[in-house]
């Protein structure tokens, strides 16, 4: 299956983001996939009115741009399969395989945080830090249409970062029953804090609620400061110090 892996971020990227990008490039190379990186030129495919409404909330513009780029790869460039990986997605296992039924799939996170009473809670969510579409997928043009329609009608004063990304996917999932990739998760701030502290209840809860060992994780750059992010990536890339099921597994 002819496959393209697409990534984008503003350059120059912090060193820890470069390590994340490198992990995806290595994985794509091992799988025999084509790889493409774009900078801010990714926003050229976003309509002007959309960019104006999104303002400085670039994540919202990227949520549309990734879909448009993936559709172009499938419809105009002859790829059988096209993947998007966020720039802060770290591949922990370079032998990771993405096997699923149907024409598209999305990552699944176990998000751990405290509730209003200070108790840790875990919730499984759909996310688009890694999403996969195959040629002829009916979901991709539908998501593009939904994204444009929602953005056209939303009041920009009430526009939240995940409006046409994970929030849209999680609203649709009970009806659409998307194929999910639980091996591609995300690390919440509570779990990150435990990883930096060499263990804790949030990390333990995430592991208990996970249905598959993590082979890749969205590190959620918007919720991390740079020093913590740098330490976190070093921990996760270390085969000696990384926690079980959160190891890169290099030989």
Protein architecture, described:
The chain is of the alpha/beta class and 251 residues long. The chain has a single domain (3-237), classed as Alpha-Beta Complex (Spore Coat Polysaccharide Biosynthesis Protein SpsA, Chain A). The protein has helices at 15-31, 48-54, 58-75, 139-153, 166-176, 189-196, 201-209, 226-237, and strands at residues 3-8, 34-38, 81-85, 89-91, 104-114, 120-134, 179-181, 184-186, 216-218. Strand 1 (3-8), helix 1 and strand 2 form a beta-alpha-beta unit. Helix 6 (189-196) packs across helix 7 (201-209). The longest helix has 18 residues, at 58-75. It starts with a strand and ends in a 14-residue tail after the last helix. The model is unreliable at 247-251 (pLDDT under 50).
CATH topology: Spore Coat Polysaccharide Biosynthesis Protein SpsA, Chain A
Which structural class matches the secondary elements? Answer: alpha/beta
Strand order, sheet with most strands: 2-1-3-6-5-7
As a whole number of angstroms, the C-alpha radius of gyration is 18 Å
Multimerization state: single chain
Q: Give the rounded overall mean pLDDT.
A: 94
β-strand number? 9
Query: What is the H/E string?
Result: EHEHHEEEEHHEEHHEH
């Amino acid at each position: 299956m002819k496959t393209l892996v697409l990534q984008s971020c503003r350059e120059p990227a912090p060193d820890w983001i470069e390590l994340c990008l490198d992990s995806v490039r290595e994985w794509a190379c091992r799988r025999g996939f084509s790889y493409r990186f774009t900078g801010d030129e990714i926003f050229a495919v976003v309509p002007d009115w959309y960019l104006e409404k999104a303002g400085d909330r670039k994540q919202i513009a990227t949520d549309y741009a990734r879909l448009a780029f993936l559709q172009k790869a499938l419809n105009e460039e002859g790829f059988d399969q096209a993947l998007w990986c966020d720039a802060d997605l770290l591949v922990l296992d370079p032998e990771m395989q993405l096997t699923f039924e149907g024409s598209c799939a999305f990552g699944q996170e176990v998000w751990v945080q405290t509730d209003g009473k200070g108790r840790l809670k875990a919730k499984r969510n759909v996310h688009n830090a890694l999403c996969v579409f195959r040629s002829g997928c009916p979901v991709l043009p539908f998501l593009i249409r939904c994204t444009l329609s929602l953005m056209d009608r939303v009041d920009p004063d009430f526009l939240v970062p995940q409006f046409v990304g994970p929030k849209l996917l999680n609203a649709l999932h009970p009806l659409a029953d998307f194929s999910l990739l639980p091996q591609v998760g995300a690390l919440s701030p509570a779990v990150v804090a435990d990883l930096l502290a060499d263990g804790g209840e949030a990390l333990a809860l995430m592991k208990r609620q996970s249905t598959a060992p993590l082979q890749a994780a969205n590190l959620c750059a918007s919720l991390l400061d740079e020093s913590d992010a740098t330490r976190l990536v070093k921990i996760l890339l270390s085969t000696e110090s990384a926690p079980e099921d959160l190891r890169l597994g290099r030989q």
